[in-house]
Amino acid sequence: MDIATKPAHAPAEHPPVALGKVGVLLINLGTPEALTTGAVRKYLAEFLSDRRVVDYPALVWQPVLRGIILNTRPAKTKKAYAEIWDQETGESPLRRYTREQAEKLAARMPEGVHVDWAMRYGVPGTAETLDRMQAAGCDRILLVPLYPQYSATTTGTACDAAYAWAMKKPWMPAFRTMPAFHDDDGLIEALADTCRRHTDETTERVILSFHGLPERYFKQGDPYHCHCQKTARLMREKLGWTTEFAPLAFQSKFGPETWLGPSTEDLVEEAAKEGLKNIAVITPGFVSDCIETLEEVGLGLAETFEEHGGESLKAIPCLNSSDAFIDLLERLCLRELQGWVAS
Ligand SMILES: C=CC1=C(C)c2cc3[nH]c(cc4nc(cc5[nH]c(cc1n2)c(C)c5CCC(=O)O)C(CCC(=O)O)=C4C)c(C)c3C=C
Ligand SMILES: [Fe+2]
Ligand SMILES: [Fe+2]
């Protein structure tokens, strides 16, 4: 709702202003707008043109992206989305869970705090959502990129999009940004609880699988690798699990560079070749189920495991819009909103 009003005592030509509200903006990665190859191409073009994600010089990268990748990958990716598209709501799972998280968080925030959600790539876009929040009177906004572990390729670029929007505004709101929450005890407990509920005495190994990154980014100072290691260590400590029982791995390799390792796919194959029959994979870097967890792990790696002699690979669900995750979001947001809302 637009609450713009003309300030009292202002001259007649003074523009209307909307002020006085605090906003919380949840931002996730992005997703195609529809289940079509064209929508997937549009989303991938925006995503893979982000220099925080692929940092090659545009002169070298854009011809490869536009000439090869965007002509081959969208059809394959669309097929993968078709396997996991949410039939109930007609959205991608990532979009559905992000929306539900915002709706549930809104019900927990103090009166007058405006909660909204956006995607870094695709729709609803970050700029259009910030426009709406500003029109609703938000002059202080907490940005909450939905990634427990910081990476320039995810958290960094989500904030970039907000700052880029602000650069064009004559009067930008005050921003705060949610710090990484990879070692927050509430996150670790919620993940441990999910692990307990989805494993039993027949589970022979649980792979802690995080989205990968080019190793070069880590060497350049991106702390993501260290954050993943810490989340994994704290989960093992909480669960009393060894590194052998719960090894860390990285999935979703893209392109020819060396990525962080070991690769989840290699560990799944090795587990089957060792003769293990029942394993599980948890993805603690994703707060919402998406193509990477449901299709790549839940379908693709489950098949790989069986092909090499395993029987069952269980993909443990992400926290999604569970009470445990909303409790965590509520606590983190109230902590970061101190001084902006009455505590
Ligand atoms: C160089 C390429 C990529 C980097 C770096 C990267 C980092 C990164 N990504 C996520 C989370 C997600 N990625 C998702 C999809 C996805 N990621 C890449 C490439 C890189 N990601 C591609 C090409 C795709 C598209 C899918 C495909 O074509 O196979 C998603 C899923 C979105 C959805 O709608 O389901 C998420 C989530 C993290 C956390 C991360 C770095 C830490
Ligand atoms: Fe990715
Ligand atoms: Fe993938």
Automatic annotation (TrEMBL):
<keyword id="KW-0479">Metal-binding</keyword>
<protein>
    <recommendedName>
        <fullName>Ferrochelatase</fullName>
        <ecNumber>4.98.1.1</ecNumber>
    </recommendedName>
</protein>
<comment type="pathway">
    <text>Porphyrin-containing compound metabolism; protoheme biosynthesis; protoheme from protoporphyrin-IX: step 1/1.</text>
</comment>
<dbReference type="InterPro" id="IPR001015">
    <property type="entry name" value="Ferrochelatase"/>
</dbReference>
<dbReference type="GO" id="GO:0006783">
    <property type="term" value="P:heme biosynthetic process"/>
</dbReference>
<comment type="similarity">
    <text>Belongs to the ferrochelatase family.</text>
</comment>
<dbReference type="Pfam" id="PF00762">
    <property type="entry name" value="Ferrochelatase"/>
</dbReference>
<feature type="binding site">
    <location>
        <position position="292"/>
    </location>
    <ligand>
        <name>Fe(2+)</name>
    </ligand>
</feature>
<keyword id="KW-0456">Lyase</keyword>
<comment type="function">
    <text>Catalyzes the ferrous insertion into protoporphyrin IX.</text>
</comment>
<dbReference type="InterPro" id="IPR019772">
    <property type="entry name" value="Ferrochelatase_AS"/>
</dbReference>
<dbReference type="GO" id="GO:0005737">
    <property type="term" value="C:cytoplasm"/>
</dbReference>
<dbReference type="InterPro" id="IPR033659">
    <property type="entry name" value="Ferrochelatase_N"/>
</dbReference>
<keyword id="KW-0350">Heme biosynthesis</keyword>
<keyword id="KW-0408">Iron</keyword>
<dbReference type="GO" id="GO:0046872">
    <property type="term" value="F:metal ion binding"/>
</dbReference>
<keyword id="KW-0627">Porphyrin biosynthesis</keyword>
<dbReference type="InterPro" id="IPR033644">
    <property type="entry name" value="Ferrochelatase_C"/>
</dbReference>
<keyword id="KW-0963">Cytoplasm</keyword>
<feature type="binding site">
    <location>
        <position position="211"/>
    </location>
    <ligand>
        <name>Fe(2+)</name>
    </ligand>
</feature>
<dbReference type="GO" id="GO:0004325">
    <property type="term" value="F:ferrochelatase activity"/>
</dbReference>
